Amino acid sequence: MKKTLKIISLVTCAAISLLLLAGCQDGKKLEKLSVCEVTHSIFYAPQYVAINEGFFEENGIEIELSNGQGADKVMSAVLSGSVDIGFAGPEAAVYVYNEGKEDYAKVFAQMTKRDGSFLMSRQKEENFDWNALKGKTLLPGRKGGVPYMTLEYVVKQKGLVPGKDVVFDDSIQYALMAGAFTSGTGDYVTVFAPTASAMELEGKGYIAASIGEQTEDIPYTAYFSKQSFLTKNADLVQRFTNALYKGQQWVNTHSAKEIAAAIAPSFADTEESLIETVVQRYKEIGVWNADPILTEESFDRLQEVISEAGELDQKAPYGDVVDTSFAQKAIDSVK
Fold it and tell me: Is the pLDDT of residue 260 over 60?
């Protein structure tokens, strides 16, 4: 009996050793790729699906994810070489291009096509009327950022004049807006999920409206990197885009409940039922791109919004700022 147990033990140890060896070998194949996201939000569900469902690993990539807390900070990290890929509003790439930088950032994949933020009020407003903003102070984010400009665009569409009918207080850093609002600053604030839903649960704010429901499709959040990085690491970027596209496909073909379960590990402090509620709402709004291609039409619309906000003196050529080759190859090869 002892001899049998010894043999079983040896076999078990051998099997474990082989598994560990295989794991080490697999580990060596993974290339690290650092990605800096503008904020951590359920709004970026396809990215977290790609991470948690192993789509990046399937493509030989280990993602190192960091939070930039603002598109300007994300772009600074990309240009300095601190990170490989930036994930933020593509307006950052337009600004850098217009500055005349030689090794400027190019957008190679799009994630979201509508604003994912929610307008939060201090009291419940069941039938919110945008005229309620008259004479109020709103915390909109960083001036020149897509969240600020999209909100400004919507407010104007509702017949209100920013700076006259409603005060846009952009003195507070993006990452601190929710905290400032709950501490008593401003009458309204725009925040992403799951922060918006968490504020409701705690009774610190209430969702009055979805900004994305009020706008046409624009390239809201996209991936970009320096031209030199894209050129030197074309295969790596292609594999990254392939994994991302698979995440987009997965989200488009699964229910809110299934998506919530998949991305839950990325939001450990949020109840899965709450994640499901947010995902369902984003599905209904239609915030996610079906594929990674940033079209010229939507790029032009983005620049119109930026121009109307007074943040753009000269439009950037689509072909110079956007590279769709990686996205197109992903669509052609990933099934």
Answer: yes
